[in-house]
Amino acid sequence: MKTFLLTLTLFLSxxxxxxxxxxxxxxxxxxxxxxxxxxxxxxxxRIDTLDNYLQLKNSKGFIILKNGKIAMERYYGxxxxxxxxxxxxxxxxxxxxxxxxxxxxxxxxxxxxxxKYLGIGWTSEPAPKEGLIKVRHQLEMTTGIEPYLDDLECxxxxxxxxxxxxxTRWFYNxxxxxxxxxxxxxxxxxxYNQYTNSRVxxxxxxxxxxxxxxxxxxxxxxxxxxxLLMLNHGIWNTDTLMHDTNYYNAMINTSQAxxxxxxxxWWLNGKSSAMLPGSSIVFPGxxxxxxxxxxxxxxxxxxxxxYVVPSMDMVVVRMGNTAGLSLFAVSNFxxxxxxxxxxxxxxxxxxxxxxxxxxxxxNPAQNTVTITLxxxxxxxxxxxxxxxxxxxxxxxxxxxxxxxxxxGLANGIYLLxxxxxNHNVKQRLVIIN
Length: 433
What we know:
- By secondary structure, this protein is α+β, with helices and mostly antiparallel strands.
- The chain has helices at 2-16, 44-56, 91-104, 115-118, 127-131, 135-140, 174-188, 192-204, 220-231, 245-251, 332-341, and strands spanning 59-66, 69-75, 85-86, 145-146, 161-162, 210-212, 215-218, 235-236, 239-240, 267-268, 273-274, 283-284, 296-300, 304-309, 314-320, 326-327, 330-331, 359-361, 368-373, 380-386, 391-397, 400-405, 412-420, 423-431.
- The strands form eight sheets. It has a six-stranded antiparallel sheet with strand order 2-1-15-14-13-10, with helices on both faces. It has a four-stranded antiparallel sheet with strand order 21-20-23-24.
- Helix 3 packs parallel to helix 7 (174-188).
- The longest helix is centred in the N-terminal third of the chain and has 15 residues, at 2-16.
- The protein is globular, with a radius of gyration of 22 Å.
């Protein structure tokens, strides 16, 4: 009787808050329950549109999980569910999770100086300045180390030069991040691959996953397992892998005062401003306007993606070659993809999100931007909106290549809303003057 009441209480509490119990696939790569996407209210035509778009955008593997079950799974060309692919910088987010576990186990503290684990002289900075760099700064991208432009991934001490005091600026810098792997290995005395295997890979039943020269490789389904682990707050089924809820919450919330859209090596949507890789400019608006505000993501070069969306009980994984104008992690592909995902529901949106095959370039843009429309698009209206929906520019144009004057617009992330005939296309536009 007591067991029944406990189960009933759990069921009611989950449904009161709108959360369904998640399904967790067993170990291995073959058995994974699915859910019929049509039962979710998705339109087959829109699923096909998304499928075609992914294929055109050089995708290799794509998965959508809904409550842990596979709602959509596609592979393109010779790539299969058993193929391995690299995560690129999406692996940073896995490292963030492993850092939290290492701290929970007492091997390290993120408030310690990195020199405690790597020794004095791991950079070329003066010793007092090097000593200011904490493990936390590596997680936040606030080490103050100057990017070594000849080799952005070089971790030699000669490549790690002083630019600013730790904690005083944000800049996306891969080299200091990569040394977190060494911090964990040195602190724990365990090889980093072995640490990953014992703390995440084996408990979640990943059938693949290995670090090669600080880059993680796995099958798409194994990336989806990690996304599901994150969706369930670091708990795999009944096995709690991360007990430290304070660290977990800090990881997926704004971590410093400079870039609202960055946690501990996780990208955060729904913030009022963002800084992007390779730039020190603060842009107004969120990184993926078409996506839910609570989305957080592991993002890698050439559009490797693991998106986690608690409000939709959803995980989305995309692996492949570059699909957009990539800025190491964030790219215009994020927004284009999420326009299509949010349009899957038959009760919302329009049937085609980019039936016109619209192209926008350059993006980021400065004083002008060119949009390419079909020649028969005789009368097209184009609106430029802020991410809050405020209209700032509008145009009426014809077909073909149309150059739009965007001079006078402030730096930032905007939404380009294009309407012709019965079709509507929305794409993100970044302006840098």
